[in-house]
Amino acid sequence: MNNSGSADMLSSDWQELLAFDRAHLWHPYTSMTEPLPIYGVESAEGVRIRLADGRELIDGMASWWSVIHGYSHPRLIEALQDQAESLSHVMFGGLGHRPAVELGRRLVELTPAGLDKVFISDSGSVAVEVAMKMALQYHHGRNSSKHQFVTVRSGYHGDTFHAMSVCDPVTGMHHLFSEVLPRYHFAPRPESTFGGSWRSGELTPLRNLLAEHHGSLCALILEPIVQGAGGMRFYHPRYLQEARALCDEFDLLLICDEIATGFGRSGKLFASEHGSVSPDILCLGKALTGCMLSLAATLTTEVVAEMISSAEPGVFMHGPTFMANPLACRVAVESIDLLLESGWQQKVDDIERQLRQGLEPCRSLEQVADVRCLGAIGVVELHTPVNMATIQERFVERGVWIRPFGKLVYVMPPYCIGAADLDQLCRTLVEVVALEN
Predict the structure, then answer these.
(1) pTM for this one?
(2) Which residues pair with 72 in a beta bridge?
(3) 388: burial class by Cβ within 10 Å (0-12, 13-18, 19+)?
(4) Looking at the structure, do residues 141 and 86 belong to the same domain, yes or no?
(5) Which among 402, 397, 394 is positioned nearest to 377, based on CA atoms?
(6) SS3 annotation, 15-49
(7) Which of 293, 317, 341 is where one domain is finished?
(8) Residue 133 annotated among the catalytic residues of the structure
(9) Does residue 267 sit in the same domain as residue 257?
(10) Residues 53, 117, 146, 156: which is the catalytic one?
(11) Does 286 participate in catalysis according to the annotation?
């Protein structure tokens, strides 16, 4: 691996590009006046990100959960090129096409039972917005006054406006907007951990909340088993099972947000399978196309779809311009087929086993509060937040791409990562965390 490059080895062209970037381009969760360092990327292949200064980094983030097959996979590229030659896009209003049908067929076959109506959109946050609108229109169709949502603390469901309203108001990164967002109901976060013992009475606070407010509550939205950007926490499957039962008891829809966990990341194809739970509405995104293009889907049941469609105005009120984009749908079909043919289950199991072993030394560090692993996710939680600019530079200097946030230093590599590269990721993470004060 070549890691001999540095900022002074950048070409004049790249120096100009990064200067423009710094002056004009707004990166996620970054200040425009004091931006974090940006590392120019020339190309990426497999699990390698090639920087403009000549260095190569082992990717430990799968570009925020989504590059499950690695970068530049030839089958995904071929599918994209082939589709572009015949149909790159057409409006989905009144028109249909083969890639959307093939994608819908696979999603109906693979997802939990009963989810056989598919709405295809263009990003994960939009999939959540769609799910919430489905829940509202469903209850509207029943002439019900239910219009409030309930969720749990430490959750995260996206950055668009209504999705922000069901993110944890503290750890969900959207507290700035708390005064203008709709005010919904938050139960305590699940405390019984995945693989740990079940705490009796765990759902009593949620039950009490539903008992008091169920007349106005339309849906419970959860990230099944894995709470992502709100805290990278893994909770007990029984919580999900009992939450499903409470939704049935109190006449709420259950929305499972599997944008981060869908397609194998948690060790199951969908995280809700850990609890053998089928939601009323399911949100998918991120890994759906193997990170070739942005695409998302919201699936629901025949009962929900018929209620929405039978009541005034008789249609579901949502329709993105790029809905069911043929390029993205075709690549998603290929990505799903590739996943199912790849022996993904064994790969994810092997990754989990190596992450548990490789990150174990962090437990002895004073600055570390917890180490936890599930599927192809490894998390080291510190007692205090990291300095992002400093820790990022240390990782890059050592030839890996790991991007922490807050107190969390974590990895979620592509499933195709080899044992040697994963070993380097783990060793580097331990080494850099040991330097944190």
Answers:
(1) 0.96
(2) none
(3) middle
(4) yes
(5) 402
(6) HHHHHHHHHHCCCCCCCCCCCCCCCCEEEEEECEE
(7) 341
(8) no
(9) yes
(10) 156
(11) yes
Placement of tokens 């009323």 in the chain: 280
Tens digit of each residue's pLDDT (9 = 90 or more) over 25-41: 999 999 999 999 999 99
Count of structural domains within the chain: 2
Contact of 187 with 150, CB cutoff 8 Å: yes
Closest CA to 146 of 157, 130, 135: 135
80, 327 contact by CB (below 8 A): yes
Scan for tokens 């950055």, then name that residue.
159
The pair of structure tokens assigned to 146 is 């239910």
Domain assignment present for 2: no
Residues 230 and 377 in one domain: no
- Contacting residues for 74 by C-beta, under 8 A, at least 6 apart: none
Structure token pair of residue 94: 């009144």
**3-class secondary structure, 68:** coil
Domain end, chosen from 341, 366, 401, is at: 341
Catalytic pick among 117, 286, 347, 407? 286
Q: Given CA atoms 90, 94, 96, 100 in this order, what sign does their dihedral have? A: positive
Q: Write out pLDDT tens, residues 206-254.
A: 999 999 999 999 999 999 999 999 999 999 999 999 999 999 999 999 9
Those residues whose C-beta lies under 8 Å from the C-beta of residue 202, and which sit 6 or more positions away, are 190, 191, 192, 236, 238, 239, 242
Type and span of the H or E element at 298: strand 296-300
- Per-residue pLDDT band at 177 (split at 50, 70, 90): confident
Which helix (H) or strand (E) is 244 found in, with range? helix 237-250
Query: Which H or E run contains 130?
Result: helix 124-141
